[in-house]
Amino acid sequence: MAHVRAQAKQRLLVFGEFFLDLVFYDLPRVPKMGEEVKTARFATFPGGGVATTAMVAAELGTPTSVITRVGEDARMNPAWQKLVQSGVSIEACVFDKYLATALTVCASYDSDRMMITQDAINRNLDKLLAMPGAKKQLRRAKHLHVACALWPPSSWKRLITRLKRSGLALSADLGWNPQLWQSRQLFPLLKHFDFVFPNEEEARAMTDEKSVEKAACKLGRWASMPVVKLGGDGSLAVRDGRVIRIKSLQVRAVDATGAGDAFNGGFLHAHLSGWPLEDCLRAGNVCGALATTGPGGSCAIPTGRKLKELMRKL
Hints:
The chain has helices at 2-9, 49-60, 78-85, 132-140, 153-165, 178-181, 186-190, 200-207, 212-219, 259-272, 277-291, 304-311, and strands spanning 12-16, 19-25, 41-47, 64-67, 69-71, 94-96, 103-109, 112-118, 143-147, 169-172, 195-196, 227-229, 235-239, 242-246. By secondary structure, the protein is α/β, with parallel strands linked by helices.
């Protein structure tokens, strides 16, 4: 019985935005306004940080739950069913009767992508954390990963402070949100997070620094440990003022959608397993790289054994 309780305490809880992703990839070129570009490659899958991060961590062996809001239309959608069948707990998720599940159309070209999103259902998402089902999951969790913008920061300040005081470890991937970065309330809020996971462009934009190392060190003044994702160049973290950089696994990239969220899932699995920081970065790099070999971030999740095998190559 004690073993069961200990295992439950290791639970990762991922909170944030869920999207039904429609991805057109392997495009011959980027279309201009008024043009049509055709491709034979298309896929639909569960998207957003909440799905990809959770699915990667769960597949690697970390007991994982998610909290998000979707429409009633999600129940029969294959993308949502893929999340359900992955072993991730959805018992605290909310099904809205009036709004449709958030939808993203993505065009992927040459290891990069552009997206158009409809996400009215994701407004005021922080209110979900006050619901009974969410409170139950928070009591079980050891680590909460927030996969959405903390907007507006004033709405999140009291909530994040309370969660941190409860002893919960916190991390966040805020995505591309220039409006948020211009708020003076953001950086005092980041001090409560054990990890923040921007990519290189986000880190530079957040700090107005041209060098990614300087940007990461500047972020280190606010967050306990910035972890910056560098795409094909791997990742880096700042620990005690020192930059630690780990190279990436070399793969043939097809679609970059969700690769950063897959990195987060690999990193958090390693962290919750008690691995050293360097190995957490390696695990993230492997999962992020494999995610680019097919459409969507959850297309090629390694087993725990395969992860360790590929990490040795780094």
